[in-house]
Design a protein that fits this description.
The complex is a heterodimer of chains A (222) and B (452). Chain A has 222 residues and is of the alpha/beta class. Chain A is built from 7 helices and 10 strands. Chain A has a 6-stranded mixed sheet. Chain B contains 14 helices and 12 strands. The two termini of chain B are 31 Å apart. Classes of the chains: A alpha/beta (222), B alpha+beta (452). At the A-B interface, helix 2, strand 6 and helix 3 of A face helix 1, helix 9 and helix 14 of B. The complex binds adenosine-5'-triphosphate (ATP) and magnesium ion.
Chain lengths: 222, 452
């Protein structure tokens, strides 16, 4: 269960401050695929970054399975990101000089898993997200956008996270491929019992989600 | 382990840039090593020259030269002053004299006047006829050198080169007995052995020992106690040279300064320190050239690594942010960048060391030639440093000559040089990558990912 209580995020901007998110509260059950929609600048990425501990709220509290996560720091924070969170980015953000499978093995290496197990799980995950074996040893530049995003999804899943956070995961894909990726994420949420929160401004895609939140000027639109 | 492999693989992401950096580091490390090798070779030489300096200071009347020449003899007063100077461990006095065969002594010189001797004879007789026959008059005899000393066992420091006794023993330098040690050639010429007697200034002397000083001139001499010589020549209390021995090398220059100020200008005070310093001057120039070059090269290498790594970190800012977002620690990411810079500098170290090993000898020789050539032309005029060294060597014996020959320096290239090359490379990489590492820790993944 993800519980967001009264979070506010302020950024210093010039001489004043910008309130990107104000007094936001919501809950998401485990195994749910949730979509956050809203216009550009409405605060979607800011919320997602706070859920992923990449940024801390100015005030308020974020709890995942009864653990307050917005006060973590140092090695605890690193460990939390590594073990409980999986990120998927709009531009896939694979490491360019590593092969697909090496990219997927990376978070497991950070987690101290032996090489054999890393290789096994990475192969398994890549097959699961639909990347055929002959493409496992290709570098990102030799994969299509959809294929790269599949690799990114596999990478996000490696350490059995509680929360998968995707910022515009289909933003660089055509609508057909985008729908395939969204279906994949929704299926994963159910089969792996992991909470998936995806930011998108494509309402057609948002309709596929189990739950949908709409942000407007940093607040939840009822 | 994987982080090391990734670090090494990252070197090849921009192969052209990495190659350029490696080449620059190769030059830097080669240059540093050459300078280090030169510095060490020169330092060793300076040490060996300094440790070969005798601690004896020679005090002789101003204007005198060896056993020849004029000037006022050194007085008992002066000797008391010298003895009272701090750090003077012993004082040896000597008096030089010449004895003429027939008039002063019954000894006959072992040295044949030869062609050079004839010249003196002709000039003394006032002959202006340059076509005069070459045969010398039968009466010409070269005088015999007589040295009075207070310390015969230390005779080698008294300007007479290395002396060994071939038979008999030394006399007591403090006595006023009519004992003498004579040179081998003089003994042979006059058929003298230990126990024989001869006359000198109307006194009868007993030969107590025979010495070999290694050259004809010194082997034609007589050495007797200084008091005895002063008595028989009625020069009571007078000496021609005083040798003050400093208690150790580090006090030598202080003692020399103290003597110069207490004795004034009527005496010449010399020690090996002057000659050594003169000989070492070009080496000291090389020392500072090498040292500054070494520091310069190290700084340049560090700056190159620093700028390159800053460039690389900035280029991969987003990647650093992603690595952090997927759970890599600052330490791990920094290690990966460290490995990358270490890889480049180790390749540079290996290439630079190989080049350095081959270049060190020619570079050191070039530095030596350059340094001694400039000293010769600016400081000492024709002959210059070489002339000084030769004059010095001939007075103090052959052993000093090789020690002071600064051109005999060898660039010492051992296996440890490889270690130094690697050490320099690692130090450059470590220092050069510290600041870029700081940049890594300051990357905030939220900012990086938002700004895509
Ligand atoms: N680091 C920052 N410093 C200052 N202002 C910021 C910062 N990050 C975000 N903002 C501001 O906060 C508000 C919300 O930004 P956010 O990136 O969350 O919007 P978004 O909904 O993700 O928009 P988009 O759909 O264009 O990605 C914007 O007005 C933005 O300018
Ligand atoms: Mg956004």
């Amino acid at each position: 269960m993800l519980t967001v209580s009264n979070i506010t995020k302020e950024f210093p901007s010039g001489d004043g401050i910008v309130k990107a998110v104000s007094n936001l509260s919501f809950k998401v059950e485990n195994g749910t695929f949730a979509a956050i929609v809203g216009k550009s600048g409405s605060g979607k990425s800011t919320v997602l970054n706070m859920l992923g501990t990449l940024d801390a709220p100015t005030s308020g509290e974020i709890k995942v399975d009864d653990q307050v996560i917005n006060k973590l720091s140092g090695s605890k924070l690193t460990k939390y990101r590594r073990q409980k969170i999986g990120f998927i980015f709009q531009n896939y953000q694979l490491i360019p000089n590593l092969t697909a499978i090496e990219n997927v093995m990376l978070p497991m290496e950070f987690n101290g898993l032996p090489k054999k197990q890393r290789l096994e799980r990475a192969t398994e995950l890549l097959l699961m997200v639909g990347l055929t074996e002959e493409k496992h040893r290709r570098r990102p530049t030799r994969l299509s956008g959809g294929e790269q995003q599949r690799v990114a999804i596999a990478r996000a899943l490696t350490n059995h996270p509680r929360l998968i956070l995707a910022d515009e995961p289909t933003g660089n894909l055509d609508s057909k491929t985008g729908k395939v990726i969204i279906d994949l994420l929704r299926d994963l949420a159910r089969s792996q019992d992991v909470t998936v929160i995806a930011v998108t401004h494509d309402t057609a895609i948002a309709k596929l989600a189990d739950v949908q939140f709409t942000l407007k000027d940093g607040e939840l639109e009822k | 382990m994987e982080v090391v492999i990734r670090g090494v693989r990252n070197v090849f992401r921009n192969a052209t840039r990495s190659l350029a950096v490696v080449l620059i580091l190769t030059v830097v490390i080669c240059f540093s090593l050459v300078m280090l090798i030169s510095l060490r070779a020169v330092n060793n030489k300076v040490d060996s020259v300094q440790s070969s300096i005798g601690t004896t200071i020679t005090i002789s009347p101003a204007g005198s030269r060896g056993t020849e020449g004029g000037g006022e003899p050194i007085t008992t007063d002066d000797i008391a002053k010298i003895k009272a100077t701090p750090h003077v461990s012993s004082v040896i006095t000597s008096l030089a004299d010449r004895a003429v065969t027939g008039t002063d002594t019954n000894l006959v010189s072992a040295i044949d006047p030869g062609t050079l001797g004839q010249r003196f004879n002709r000039n003394r007789s006032g002959s202006t006829n340059s076509n005069a026959p070459a045969a010398p008059p039968a009466t010409l005899k070269l005088p015999i050198t007589v040295t009075g000393t207070s310390d015969p066992s230390n005779i080698q420091v008294q300007g007479i080169s290395t002396v060994t006794l071939t038979s008999g023993k030394w006399f007591d330098g403090a006595s006023s007995a009519n004992d003498a040690v004579i040179g081998t050639t003089l003994a042979t010429k006059n058929t003298l052995v230990v126990g024989s007697t001869f006359t000198l200034h109307d006194a009868t002397f007993t030969v107590v020992g025979i010495e070999d000083a290694g050259n004809q001139f010194a082997n034609n001499g007589v050495i007797i106690p200084i008091t005895t010589l002063q008595n028989i020549t009625t020069q009571a209390g007078q000496v021609t040279s005083v040798y003050a021995v400093a208690d150790n090398l580090s006090n030598l220059s202080d003692v020399q300064t103290a003597l110069t100020s207490s004795l004034g200008t009527k005496v010449d005070i010399t020690s090996q320190i002057d000659q050594a310093n003169q000989a070492l001057q070009p080496l000291q120039n090389i020392q500072s050239i090498s040292l500054y070059s070494l520091i310069g090269a190290l700084v340049a290498g560090t700056v190159i690594i620093l700028l390159t790594m800053v460039m690389i970190v900035r280029e991969r800012r987003k990647e650093v942010g992603v690595l952090k977002a997927i759970g890599a620690s600052n330490f791990l990411i920094s290690t990966q960048f460290m490995v990358e810079s270490f890889t480049m500098s180790i390749i540079g170290a290996v290439a630079g060391t190989i080049a350095g090993v081959f270049l060190s000898t020619p570079v050191l020789n070039a530095l030596l030639n350059n340094a001694s050539a400039s000293t010769a032309s600016t400081a000492a005029g024709p002959g210059g440093f070489g002339g000084a060294a030769r004059g010095f060597a001939s007075r103090f014996g052959g052993q000093a000559a090789s020690a002071f020959n600064i051109k005999s320096i060898q660039a010492n290239v051992g296996w440890n040089i490889l270690g130094y090359g690697l050490l320099i490379a690692l130090a450059i990489a470590l220092i050069g990558t510290l600041f870029p590492t700081l940049l890594i820790t300051r990357v905030r993944p939220a900012d990086v990912i938002r700004g895509e």
